[in-house]
Amino acid sequence: MAALRRGDPRESPQRLYLPIDAFIGDDADVVFGRTSAYNKQQLIPTPSRSPPALWKGIFHGILTFLLVVANIWNITLALSDIAHFGCSHFYGVSVSEDLPPVCHPIILPYQRWPAFKSLEAQVYRHTQQVSGLSSMLRKLDDVLGVALGADRDLARSPQADIILPLTTSDSSSTSWVFSIYNRFSSSSTSTVYLPTVVLDSPPNTGECWQFAGDRGHIAIRLAHHAVVTALSIALPPFDELWDEKYQSPKSIRAWGHPVLPLQATCLDSRPQRSLSDFKTARLPVSVDSKKPLVLLAKFEYNITAPYSRQMFPVEPNYTCEIPALDFVVIEILGNWGANKTCVYHVGIHGKRP
Fold first, then answer.
1. Highest mean pLDDT: which of 49-58, 123-132, 218-227?
2. Secondary structure letter of residue 129 according to DSSP
3. Helix (H) or strand (E) holding 125
4. Which residues, 6 or more positions from 274, have their beta carbon under 8 angstroms from its beta carbon?
5. How many beta carbons lie within 10 A of that of residue 350, not counting itself?
6. Rounded distance, CA 333 to CA 298, Å?
7. What does the DSSP assignment read for 37-104?
8. What does the pLDDT average to over 196-219?
9. 3-class DSSP state of 209
């Protein structure tokens, strides 16, 4: 080594080996196609997790775990329902308590949850309220469809009344055949309503004046003397009556009792009837039996019409002006094929003379 430092030519040169990394720079990967370990440490930094990335990974992990648990729970519930359904059909039992334990559902049916029962009761109560309001609106629409443009219904006045001696009575109209039918018929109503129920408006389903057969009559005393311009027959909405609507009157004639004697022109132009044709008992002193009844209108009530309250105007007669009346007799000549007739509200529309 001393000779080498002095440069003595006699000494054989010694070869020294140095790693190539000592002579290559940052571009060694371009020249030699590789990177030194030193440069690898300089070029490739050590990856580190930032706090947001860490929380994001934790959140994804928790979400994945929950989804797996939810899928397992859904599959378990499906298998439980399938087992319960199969056991119910196999044993022919629908009550879970009567099935083997293996067939019991994991959770109770939702119909048996207290919260569901409370909600079901609230829904039922609100449904009943809505149904009642809907029925009231239909009745109101029915009444308004007739009342608008018509004279006041005099039969709804508290002073209006029924003249019973001019009204079909049970004793005169109920035959022994009809009595036997009512005794054994399950469809007959247990409540019997008086003829005064025809003055109530709007009518309530089932609350009507009934008589046997299809022919009868009823006399309505007005609260005050009035000129009658129209008559109306009202029933509850048809969708509430079912087959009872066939007990509705069909052919009807209305007769009026004038306060003053008729003019000579009216005697020949309008049909008349005697009070004795409708009398079922002794007439009160307030009823003048000497004056005949005069025909106001004859009409038919239609159970296929859109409205259950139907208006019928008094038939005009230009040669005979009908004077003021004190009561009106409604004569029913037929119904829609039933063995008894059910009359709800009879409206008498008019005004003071």
1. 218-227
2. H
3. helix 114-147
4. 292, 293
5. 26
6. 10
7. HHHHHHHSPPP---HHHHHHHHHHHHHHHHHHHHHHHHHHHHHHHHHHHHHHHHHT---GGGS-GGGS
8. 91
9. strand
